[in-house]
Amino acid sequence: MLNIMVSAGEVSGDMHAAAVIKELKEKTAALGEELNVFGMGSTALKKAGAEIIIDPTEISTIGYLEAFKNLRTHFKHLKKMKELLKERKPELVFLVDYSGFNLKLAKACAEEGIKAVNYFPPTAWIYNKGRAKKLADYGTHIAAVLPMERDVYREAGAEVTFVGHPLLDLVKVEGDKNSIKADFKIRKKKKIIGLFPGSRKGEIKALLPEILKAAQRLAQNFDHLSFVLAAAEGVKDEFLTDFTADYNFDLKIVRNNNYRLMEAAEFLITASGTTTLEAAILTTPHIIVYKSSLSTYLLAKYLFKIEFIGKPNIIAGKEILPELLQKECKAENIYAQAEEWLNYKGLLVEAERKLREVKEKLGGGGAVKKTAELLLTEGGLKGNG
Predict the structure, then answer these.
(1) Is 364 exposed, middle or buried (0-12, 13-18, 19+ CB in 10 A)?
(2) CATH fold for the domain made of 177-361
(3) What is the pLDDT of residue 57?
(4) Its Gene Ontology molecular function terms (predicted)?
(5) CA gap 360, 358 in Å, rounded
(6) Is the distance from CB of 199 to CB of 232 less than 8 angstroms?
(7) How far apart are CA 299 and CA 305, in angstroms?
(8) How far is it, in rounded angstroms, from Cα 96 to Cα 199?
(9) In whole angstroms, what is the distance from residue 36 CA to residue 194 CA?
């Protein structure tokens, strides 16, 4: 029996953790062993067979200061997880994302003499490299998904396994551009511009009006364009049509087709987030737009000195894709960048080339299997070599 305590505090972390646990369950079964997983997570981990004792996803927040609203609940959850460590004494703790919380839990693991593996660890390459040193001192094994993550944690003295990014195995598309256009009922000669205004209503309210103003102007000046708006899961069409009702240009709303839309699009106008990395894997150029609360922006820009917010730019170490943030996130600026790309095809070709370089840095695929293998080894069910 392999007992693992899992700690995933957000929806994305829950999904990534569940994929690894599902793979691990198959591997332990093949070895004739049982797997018991318990701890903190949500729907995906529960479906993967984990015993969910704490589900913190309802208090997930965006931004630094915003998180303080739920500070008391976070500490309550941390106290419960520390109690579980002592009561159940798992062979291994699987920490997934949720950096501030899991950094404290990693310390508790070290104090109890329990091994821990951190998948999607704190972004110490962006700010506060001291967090990498802390995890190294705690003896936490880092399952690195990004090259700069691997490098900063090794430099800090941590044990690191570079597993690569799991999105490489998930971002797959069937069909070519023309077949996708046919499914979207768009003529072959039309160029698709994909619109991804985010998955949260606050993001959409802040970004979609400016995106639509830019799209309308593009439609007026370029007669071969078709715009496709991606509806995120949980966002109803009615919410989006409240924004689109006043516009009269070739615009469709689709859902559950994000990767196919990215593949068929000439380029995207997208909110910062996972979409930027998914588009990079498909080597689709995109204009990154975002507006956050003033407090979050000021902390990121001036205290933590974050230079870029788009993952492709962060991985490349330079701005290979335009970022229009805060006051720069205006329709006229979005239009100007899109117009330049439409008028000079060579710029799009160059952006695609740079995105291929970013994709190569993400590893060769198989991140979920590699992470499951690491958990097997750290859990004592498989030798080191």
Answers:
(1) exposed
(2) Rossmann fold (3.40.50)
(3) 74
(4) lipid-A-disaccharide synthase activity; phospholipid binding
(5) 5
(6) yes
(7) 8
(8) 21
(9) 43
Distance CA 112, CA 15 (A): 27
Domain ranges of the chain: 2-166+366-378, 177-361
β-bridge pairing 286-290 and 323-325 = parallel
Question: 159: burial class by Cβ within 10 Å (0-12, 13-18, 19+)?
Answer: middle
* CATH label, 2-166+366-378, candidates 3.40.50.2000, 3.30.390.30, 3.30.420.40, 3.30.70.890: 3.40.50.2000
Q: Letter for the amino acid at 58?
A: E
Q: Strands, DSSP E only, in the chain?
A: 2-8, 35-40, 51-54, 92-96, 115-119, 141-144, 160-162, 191-196, 225-231, 251-255, 265-271, 286-290, 323-325
Q: Residue 337, CB half-sphere, CA atoms under 13 Å: how many?
A: 23
**In terms of Cα–Cα distance, which of 204, 84, 106, 81 is closest to 159?**
106
Topology agreement, domain 2-166+366-378 and domain 177-361: yes
Ramachandran class of 120: left when φ > 0, alpha when ψ lies in -120 to 50, beta otherwise: left
| DSSP one-letter string for 106-134 | HHHHHHHT-EEEEES---TTTS-THHHHH
**CA–CA separation, 9 and 327 (whole Å):** 31
Q: Which amino acid is at 355?
A: L
Contact 338, 324 (CB under 8 A): no
Q: H/E element holding 310?
A: none
pLDDT tens per residue across span 198-254: 988 888 999 999 999 999 999 999 999 999 999 988 889 999 999 999 899 999 999
